[in-house]
Design a protein that fits this description.
alpha+beta, 22% strand, globular, 41% helix, 165 residues, three-stranded antiparallel β-sheet, five-stranded antiparallel β-sheet
């Protein structure tokens, strides 16, 4: 790996760490890492990335909206789901992250039970063990079904994550 790439990766890690730290201070949460528990929320999977002092797990609502947009067939639907999470009555906070896949990304972080409620789903169900859910490194144009098929055929998304976190 070139020295420039190593410097870029270090800068990305520093940016992401600073953003996570600020988010944790403002929300009284702790970082669970990139392999937190996965939940079923209606028809999609979401990954818990933080846990608050009340034991609630927080996930990226923008990624949930992206998954729902794929199920419903498009960007217009995804934008509608974003609107559900982006109003003052919702316990939702911005978290800016940077990845090779998405560039600078605004994660709309919210408690998973709030995401389920706002999208009209029953309470979420935690999946056993290490299960996949859409992440900041998932290609936005790929559906959850496509990503799960890639993993089932030997794809290893965790190899892509290590240098950016």
């Amino acid at each position: 790996m070139s020295d420039h790439k190593q410097q870029l990766d270090a800068a990305v890690r520093a940016f992401n760490t600073a953003e996570r730290t600020e988010f944790m201070l403002h929300t009284a949460t702790r970082w669970l890492g990139i392999d937190g528990p996965a939940y079923i929320v209606g028809d999609i999977r979401v990954m818990a990335l933080f846990e608050d002092i009340h034991g609630r797990h927080w996930a990226d609502g923008a990624l949930a909206a992206e998954s729902l947009g794929h199920l419903a067939g498009g960007q217009e639907t995804e934008d509608r789901y974003h609107e559900l999470l982006c109003h003052p009555d919702i316990e939702c906070r911005d978290l800016w992250m940077f990845t090779d896949t998405r560039g600078r990304w605004n994660a709309l972080m919210a408690p998973i039970d709030v995401i389920a409620h706002e999208f009209g789903y029953p309470p979420p169900i935690v999946l056993p063990g290490q299960n996949w859910a859409r992440s900041w490194w998932t290609l936005p144009e790929r559906s959850d079904e496509q990503e799960l098929a890639w993993i089932a055929h030997g794809g290893d998304p965790t190899q892509l994550y290590a240098r950016e976190i």
